């Protein structure tokens, strides 16, 4: 395959009855086949004209493809070579018939298995964006399964339908089919699993990350590890150090529109004031790799349209250039601590850009949730951070730090508004303090001391120290109700876990909730 061919689209569709009818009509008209006795319609002379040769040729005639794959059920297997000759009359592209074991073309199960077998062999993550699927040929089962496959398991390409010439508006017979989703919009962490964060990342890596055409949106509070998750996805999927490119959108948005475009897409020398040399944009640096759009919610609305265009067309153009650059297998991972759907509702973020970025979105848990619902994972996290600190600083590497039980209790009971970032800082300060005082054991006092040093901004308010309620029983009842609701929210209404967090008997909690109703 030549380099030019490797950039061409790859066509996939079933062979449908309309395509067979057009082919047979033409063959009868040309005298290649006799007209069947039971088919009077084939005796009508057939004229081979653009747009009138059936759904497949409406799409493929006079167009260039790297390959045309036509899937055939058992019904058409005996005439598949004739179908191939018919399709090749309208194109010079290579055509291959895929004979499948589908005997009942209305069977969703048979069609699914055949299509899955074909795509698992011929589709790949590297070529995903080049695939074009024509949904029109075939039975409703064939159309539905092809659409499903093209949007979920083998996503990344584009889907189309063809319409007969007499129904075409503005003479457009090929129409793109889009869905309001490419994958289910949210994958929430399962707090009942052994290690919720790592399990969820592993799930994404296994199912979706190998497909670079799938854009991933990481959600969560500041400090939960969104950057680390993005890097993990990149490297576990074969990425290299030199093509994981981070773009801090908050920093880029601080400049003017030209600077924003120049950073992302590049600029030619002299294309705007202050551009004194050619600049390669971050997207181009991420070719065959990953671009990580951190703090993506900070992009101003006017600049959002520029980013959307690049994601839609998979092409970029540097400022001052007239040549578009094709994006080759660039995975886009974005992150924010905003509620982007709220931003969409409030007109601060484009809805179409949101759905481009959030093909697969993952909400990373905050540290409070992990500490309350999965203490074993919390302990693993602390141990991992301590080991990382020893590797990073030579002064710490020879000391085997141990945490006492009261140190663990202190860590587990803290609110952690700064999440993993704050935990890391507390552990770093605590290990240095212990080392300088000749200790390898870190107790609760050391942790508490450095929790007070690592301060974070919190929006939560608490009563003043001298606050006295005018009705103590009512105030205590309100506080109890509030705390129980918080525990249920934290555990996603799992009464067993909520009772455990609160130190209550589950039956007692159940009775309280029943009375509260």
Automatic annotation (TrEMBL):
- List, alphabetically, the InterPro entries matched: AAA+_ATPase, AAA_lid_NorR, Homeodomain-like_sf, HTH_Fis, P-loop_NTPase, RtcR, Sigma_54_int, Sigma_54_int_dom_ATP-bd_2
One example GO MF annotation: sequence-specific DNA binding
Q: What Gene3D superfamilies does its record include?
A: 1.10.8.60, Homeodomain-like, P-loop containing nucleotide triphosphate hydrolases
Q: Where is the Sigma-54 factor interaction domain?
A: 191-432
Q: Which UniProt keywords apply?
A: ATP-binding, DNA-binding, Nucleotide-binding, Transcription, Transcription regulation
A Gene Ontology biological process noted in the UniProt record is: regulation of DNA-templated transcription
Which CDD domains did the record assign?
A: AAA (cd00009)
Which superkingdom does the taxonomy of this entry point to? Answer: Bacteria
Q: What is this protein called?
A: Regulatory protein, Fis family
What species is given as this protein's source? Succinivibrio dextrinosolvens
**What broad taxonomic lineage does this protein's source fall under?**
Bacteria, Pseudomonadati, Pseudomonadota, Gammaproteobacteria, Aeromonadales
């Amino acid at each position: 395959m030549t380099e030019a061919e490797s950039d061409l689209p790859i066509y996939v569709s079933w062979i449908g009855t309309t395509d067979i009818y057009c082919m047979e009509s033409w063959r009868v008209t040309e005298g290649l086949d006799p007209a069947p006795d039971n088919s009077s319609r084939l005796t009508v002379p057939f004229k081979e004209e653009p747009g009138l040769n059936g759904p497949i040729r409406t799409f493929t005639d006079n167009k260039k493809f790297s390959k045309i794959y036509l899937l055939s059920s058992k019904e058409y297997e005996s005439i598949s070579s004739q179908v191939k000759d018919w399709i090749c009359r309208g194109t010079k592209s290579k055509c291959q018939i895929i004979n499948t074991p589908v005997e009942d073309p209305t069977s969703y199960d048979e069609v699914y298995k055949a299509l899955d077998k074909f795509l698992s062999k011929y589709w790949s993550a590297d070529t995903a964006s080049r695939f074009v699927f024509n949904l029109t040929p075939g039975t409703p089962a064939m159309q539905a399964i092809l659409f499903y496959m093209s949007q979920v398991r083998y996503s990344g390409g584009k889907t189309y339908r063809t319409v007969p010439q007499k129904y075409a508006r503005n003479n457009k017979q090929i129409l793109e089919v889009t869905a309001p989703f490419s994958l289910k919009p949210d994958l929430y962490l399962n707090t009942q699993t052994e290690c919720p964060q790592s399990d969820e990342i592993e799930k994404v890596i296994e199912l979706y990350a190998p497909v670079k055409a799938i854009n991933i949106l990481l959600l969560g509070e500041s400090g939960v590890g969104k950057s680390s998750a993005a890097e993990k996805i990149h490297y576990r999927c074969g990425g290299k150090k030199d093509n994981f490119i981070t773009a801090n959108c908050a920093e880029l948005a601080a400049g003017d529109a030209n600077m924003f475009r120049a950073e992302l897409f590049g600029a030619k020398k002299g294309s705007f004031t202050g551009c004194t040399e050619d600049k390669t944009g971050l997207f181009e640096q991420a070719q065959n790799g990953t671009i990580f759009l951190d703090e993506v919610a900070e992009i101003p609305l006017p600049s959002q349209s520029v980013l959307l265009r690049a994601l839609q067309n998979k092409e970029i153009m540097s400022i001052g250039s007239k040549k578009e650059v094709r994006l080759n297998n660039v995975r886009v991972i974005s992150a924010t601590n905003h509620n982007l759907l709220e931003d969409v509702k409030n007109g601060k973020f484009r809805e179409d850009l949101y759905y481009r970025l959030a093909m697969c979105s993952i909400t990373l848990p905050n540290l409070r949730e992990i500490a309350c619902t999965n203490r074993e994972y919390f302990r693993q996290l602390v141990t991992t951070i301590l080991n990382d600190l020893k590797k990073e600083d030579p002064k710490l590497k020879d000391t085997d730090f141990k945490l006492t039980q009261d140190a663990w209790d202190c860590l587990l009971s803290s609110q952690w508004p700064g999440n993993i970032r704050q935990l890391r800082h507390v552990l770093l300060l605590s290990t240095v303090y212990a080392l300088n005082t000749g200790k390898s054991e870190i107790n609760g006092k050391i942790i508490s001391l450095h929790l007070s040093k690592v301060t974070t901004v919190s929006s939560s308010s608490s009563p003043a120290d001298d606050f006295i309620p005018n009705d103590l029983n009512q105030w205590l009842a309100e506080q109890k109700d509030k705390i129980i609701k918080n525990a249920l929210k934290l555990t996603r209404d799992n009464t067993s876990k909520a009772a455990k967090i609160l130190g209550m008997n589950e039956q007692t909690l159940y009775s309280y909730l029943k009375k509260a109703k």
